[in-house]
Amino acid sequence: MISLNQVNYSISGRSLLEKVTFQISNNQRVGLVGRNGCGKSTLFNVMQGLATIDSGDLEIAKHYKILSIKQEMPSGDLSPLDYLLEQDQERLSLLKELEDCQSADRMGDIYERLIQIDAYTAESRAAIVLKGLGFNDEDQLRPLKTFSGGFRMRIALAAALFQEPDLLLLDEPTNHLDFETTQWLQQFLSKYSKSFLMISHDREFLNATINNVLHLKNGKVSRYTGNFDTFLAVYEQQQANLAAYNARLEEQRAHMQSFVDRFKATASKARQAQSRMKAIQKLKLIPVDKSDPTVAFNFPQPETISPPMLSFEKVSIGYGDKVILHNINATLSPDERIGLVGSNGNGKSTLAKFLAGELEPFGGEVKRHGKLKIAFYKQDQFDNMDMDRTAYNVVSDAMPKANPTQIRSHLGRFGFVKDKADQKIKLLSGGERARLLFSCLTAESPNLLILDEPTNHLDMEMRESLIDALNTYTGAVILITHDRHLLRHVADRLWVIKNKTLNQFDGDLQDYIKQIER
Fold this sequence. Notes:
Layout: E1 2-11, E2 14-24, E3 29-33, H1 40-47, E4 55-60, E5 66-68, H2 80-87, H3 89-100, H4 104-116, H5 122-132, H6 149-163, E6 167-171, H7 179-190, E7 195-199, H8 203-209, E8 212-217, E9 220-225, H9 228-263, H10 270-282, E10 310-319, E11 322-332, E12 337-341, H11 348-355, E13 363-368, E14 374-377, H12 391-398, H13 404-412, H14 430-441, E15 448-452, H15 460-472, E16 476-480, H16 484-490, E17 493-498, E18 501-504, H17 509-517
Parallel strand pairs: 3-7, 3-8, 5-6, 6-7, 12-16, 12-17, 14-15, 15-16
Antiparallel strand pairs: 1-2, 1-4, 8-9, 10-11, 10-13, 17-18
């Protein structure tokens, strides 16, 4: 068990945690939620002893093992399977001791302990975890250094899951996973026999895996029983109750102020008026959440064009001599909402590049509407931003014919109002940079949005705002995402990439999930 009592923590004079109190016991699956930048990762560091608290108590039960996913990506000549097995230091130590052990009593103790820690099934358990995270039998034996960064992050996740600590700390564990692997991890965590605390902005993933919520806001933590939707319903009711309480308080304040204004100059009523004034000063409104401009998404509406906006037939695409997708066909209408699904490495991003016009096909026929404008959101565009430029600078480059008023108006669609538009990019949060990228990409009112994992830097509130914006946008959308809540509320149909082919899926998202589970 781990327990925090009245914990305070600040950095550079800024208070991040204030009188935080909670405990996590055995068999609790807890979601840690809150806006980006509120201190969730800081709380993880405190629980691991990586950050020294200013005051309060942090108690961890003896022999209680807390583990998080390693931030450094594993590499080298070890295979993923051997890397996972090396994480179990007790097992390795006992097996090594057994090789040279001469005492029959000690050998008996070692064998008993090996049975207790399930040592003889370690290799099969490691293989099961790796298989679930997308590593086939051949992949499990390849050197770590041959894998991409995304797959090495999966190996780090696999190592944490394999060790089964008493408390597993998970910080956005689905960020490097595809849709299918996210589904496997969801099932794994929903049956996890010990405890975990998870930061996630994936609403459906939280609903399926947790039974408690810790809500971090303004440095304070509130606990709720149930999944995320249960928390949201209770929290929204609390906010409504607070708003109603404040309204009654304002009415009472106005009534008392009216008395003071009428009688403060009347000698016989002066004492009463003074008493009322003191009472008014003691009436304190309880803060209630208000609409936040930092979650703003508002896409400009495109020019209407006749269908089809894009079609291709018998097309093959790839890189160099390597064919990724072969003999594919599809037609896209101006108002379509397509969810593009399939395991990582099968060609989703390759298809997105082709659709965006960044990748020429090896062969086949492609037709694009003459007035088609495409905006392509992809993760590596963050790397190409000049961090010393301002939001206004980069959007003005994307709108060369616009005047300053038009540029600031467009920035305002995405929450960059007043001084925020003149702030340097290096001072913006990940979510703000994502909104700035959307602002640049939509400056010319595109007819087609191609979005490759657009939510990786967005918190829950910003994801909901993105859903609203996409559903009011009148152009076409092609969406690659592991966020099933986003996919469910935006996509009308699914394209599936598998075995170098592209097929239209006959069914909805729930049908596809059932197919994956089977």
